Amino acid sequence: MLNQKGQAFDAFKLLIAAVVAGAILVILLSMIGGFMPVGQDPLTVMGQELNKVKKGGVASTSTAVVQFQEGQEYTADAVAQEAGINKGMVVFCCEGVDDPDGKCEGYMFDEHEDAFECNGKTLTVKQNIAGKVRAYCPIGEGKCIIGFKLTRG
To answer: What pLDDT was estimated at residue 39?
Structure first.
């Protein structure tokens, strides 16, 4: 009886290894999660959303929350360049922008007039604000549009 090896000890070692591996995984995931930015760069997200829809006919709203910083200015041509679209083919959702498909409804920058100054080609941020970006490119000759939806927290 003194020199018999039980199989239970091997199972116990395996259990200890699994617990240690799980603890290491939790620590690594929490570290990676800590490096995520609070708000994504608006220009990058606008370009990514336009890339998703530039073939036309579909609207896409970002899953990432973007943080617009007071004093920043964005041009529609800079967004077009970020997305690889010809200059002059992108406009911001603002009053007076041609939107026959109604994709700006609920996504107009000037719905938040305290935060933005918008004329379709230029977007000026007047105060810090966070939200999601919407992009839409109509099928045919219309210009692609970029909109904004405030995130409620």
So the answer is: 56
Q: What is the CB-side half-sphere exposure of residue 21 using CA atoms within 13 A?
A: 6
* b/e per residue 14-50 (b: at least 16 CB within 10 A): eeeeeeeeeeeeeeeeeeeeeeeeebbebbebbbbbb
Between 111 and 34, the higher pLDDT residue: 111
Query: Mean pLDDT in the chain?
Result: 86
Total H helices, total E strands in the chain: 3, 8
Residue 135 φ then ψ, to 5°: -130, 145
CB atoms within 10 A of CB 123: 26
Please report, in angstroms and rounded to a whole number, the separation of the first and last CA atoms in the chain.
66
Looking at the DSSP assignment, which residues form a beta bridge with residue 75? 122
Is 109's pLDDT higher than 50? yes
Q: What pTM did the predictor assign?
A: 0.72
Residue 102, phi-psi category: left (phi > 0), alpha (psi -120 to 50), beta (remainder): left
* Helix ranges, the chain (H): 8-34, 42-53, 76-83
Residue 37 has pLDDT above 70, yes or no: no
d(CA 108, CA 106): 6
